[in-house]
Amino acid sequence: MSQVFIHKHRVSYAECTVGNHVYYARYLDILEQARGEFFRAAGKTCKELQDLGFIFPVLDCHISYKGPARYDDLLDVQVYLIEVGRVRVSFKYSILNESGKILVTGETTHVCTSLDEKPRRLPEDLTAFCQKFVHDQLLK
Amino acid sequence: MSQVFIHKHRVSYAECTVGNHVYYARYLDILEQARGEFFRAAGKTCKELQDLGFIFPVLDCHISYKGPARYDDLLDVQVYLIEVGRVRVSFKYSILNESGKILVTGETTHVCTSLDEKPRRLPEDLTAFCQKFVHDQLLK
Amino acid sequence: MSQVFIHKHRVSYAECTVGNHVYYARYLDILEQARGEFFRAAGKTCKELQDLGFIFPVLDCHISYKGPARYDDLLDVQVYLIEVGRVRVSFKYSILNESGKILVTGETTHVCTSLDEKPRRLPEDLTAFCQKFVHDQLLK
Amino acid sequence: MSQVFIHKHRVSYAECTVGNHVYYARYLDILEQARGEFFRAAGKTCKELQDLGFIFPVLDCHISYKGPARYDDLLDVQVYLIEVGRVRVSFKYSILNESGKILVTGETTHVCTSLDEKPRRLPEDLTAFCQKFVHDQLLK
User: What is the pLDDT, as a whole number, of residue B2?
Assistant: First the structure.
């Protein structure tokens, strides 16, 4: 049975813009933090993976904005996967506020490379961990 | 004949991250600056439009990363449109470095609303200006 | 006996710049998060205080950089006060890494105002809470 | 006669926060951009200096906030120096809006180091350029 990884995020003033809502680019910062915690939970942090010669540049990012996150909101960032390939991995995200309303959905695709950015097979233990979070269908 | 709007951007340290390249979220900041200049060229700034009761929340954003922008690069941000509807407008962007290499392509879709976020028809003069920048086909 | 308030912060890629260290401006974002948690602990969040007509604009900020914070560092942000006046409050901060090394010290001075930015006496319960964190001497 | 270096900056939404003013940390981003242009005018960009083995880490930063910069303001960032030592340089800044009102004053102190962060004498031509911008007294 597939799982969803949850990362909690508290909205700060630094992330908000005119009109009191999170600036559209800042959600990508939040998704990066969530991915960082996902990797940590998978057994090796991004830093440890980098020391082992694995990095995960973003190829593509797609975000849909459905409602504003506000200052001091405590957000649930749900992380799961839609594809774990040999050298590619695609994450899917939903960001919800405390009322359970979905504010943002997103997707990022990454390639696994060596430090000189040559494509490289994902570490086996990472692939195994990721498999548990793969969903055949998109969650709403 | 359709046109492309150009905004120049100099990369600062604030925009870069580990590995000396622009952080993936910062490109959205740069696209916002380019849209701001596009609106100014169209005759009214975002601020003036807001004072007239028009705002343009982002519904959707899609970015493809093709190569890294580096500290101090002078970027060309090309802006054009793929759709100007009654209440919606979709911008398309290409970011190139000084060698003419495309580093990033992107697309943002906005809805035109009143300040209380009810859909509202685009101002006529803005629509007319935008029409000049509509491309039937995607540029590469 | 006076206390120190502790806020934990995990460094993300978004906060780092070329050379793999936290960008000098981002520490101010981190201090704001720490102040937000301090206010929450004091009984009312900044948002609740704002709803009651109290805001705390920054008058002055002073930061000393003693060593770099790196990606994925788990930082201790120590918060205490050096002055709680009738309409002013001065926070003092030390940011330490997991080895206990002080990376940054800082100070911010805020004025308490109404929403139209007229000076206003600090709420009594906030003053009482703050008093517990006042240190006569600067901590190292 | 001593000079002042001017850098122009247009405020974007990305830099603003709740209440429609520039977020207090973002001014440091703006000062970095101004320093970058100052170095370019001095003959070598920060990137070129880095390639020659000179970097300028910030030791200390002090900002006073006197009034809010707003979205779309075109700011004048005035840069001058208060000290050019053998291995240290202190910049002073005033940020003004189009009405000539001073919104922010600031000061940053930098040490010149080699890439492995050992103190290093400033390049001679940089020192000579800087001398032209040294003011004995603080400007208002």
Answer: 74
Subunit partners of chain A (3 or more CB pairs within 8 A): B, C, D
- In whole angstroms, how far apart are CA A24 and each of B11, B35, B68, D54? 20, 14, 21, 36
β pairing state of B102-111 and A102-111: unpaired
- Is there a contact between C24 and B21 (Cβ–Cβ < 8 Å)? no
Please report the sign of the dihedral spanned by the C-alpha atoms of residue B97, residue B99, residue B102, residue B108.
positive
CB contact under 8 A, A13 and D23: yes
Angle in degrees, 0-180, between the axes of helices D124-131 and D26-42, rounded to the nearest 10: 110
Cβ neighbours, 10 Å, residue B20: 17
- Residue D101 is predicted with a pLDDT of 98
Selection from D92, D87, D93, D94 nearest residue D127 by Cα: D87
d(CA D38, CA D45): 9
Choose the weakest-confidence range: A65-74, D95-104, D130-139.
Answer: D130-139
How far does B122 lie from chain C, in Å, by closest CA?
Answer: 33
With CA atoms as reference, the chain C residue closest to A45 would be C72
Is the CB of D29 less than 8 angstroms away from the CB of C32?
A: no
Kindly state the DSSP code that residue B133 receives in the 8-state scheme: T
DSSP string, B2-43: ---EEEEEE--GGGEETTTEE-TTHHHHHHHHHHHHHHHHHT
* Residue given tokens 């002080």 in the structure block: C102
Task: Name the interface residues of B facing C (CB cutoff 8 Å).
Answer: 13-14, 16-18, 20, 23, 25, 71
| Residue A74 CB contacts under 8 Å (≥ 6 apart), including other chains | A8, A9, A10, A11, A97, A98
d(CA A129, CA A39): 9
What is the helix (H) or strand (E) element at residue A5, kind and residue range? strand A5-10
Q: C14-18 long-range CB contacts below 8 Å, 24 or more apart?
A: C14/A28, C14/A29, C14/A32, C14/A33, C14/B17, C14/B23, C14/B25, C16/B17, C16/B18, C16/C70, C16/C71, C17/B13, C17/B14, C17/B16, C17/B17, C17/B18, C18/B13, C18/B16, C18/B17, C18/B18, C18/B20, C18/B71
- pTM metric for this prediction: 0.96
For chain A, the domains span: 5-131
CATH number of A5-131: 3.10.129.10
Please indicate whether, in this complex, the C-beta atoms of A13 and D16 are within 8 angstroms of each other: no
Q: Which amino acid is at A17?
A: T
- The Cβ of residue B17 has, within 10 Å, a number of other Cβ atoms equal to 23
User: Over the stretch C5-20, which tens digit does the pLDDT of each residue have?
Assistant: 999 999 999 999 998 8
For residues A71-100, average pLDDT: 96
Q: Can you list the alpha helix ranges (DSSP code H) found in A43-84?
A: 46-51
> Tokens 């000579």 identify what position?
D128
Residue A15 in tokens = 């992330």
Q: How many residues does chain D have?
A: 140
Q: What's the mean pLDDT when you consider all of chain D?
A: 94
Distance CA C10, CA C66 (A): 18
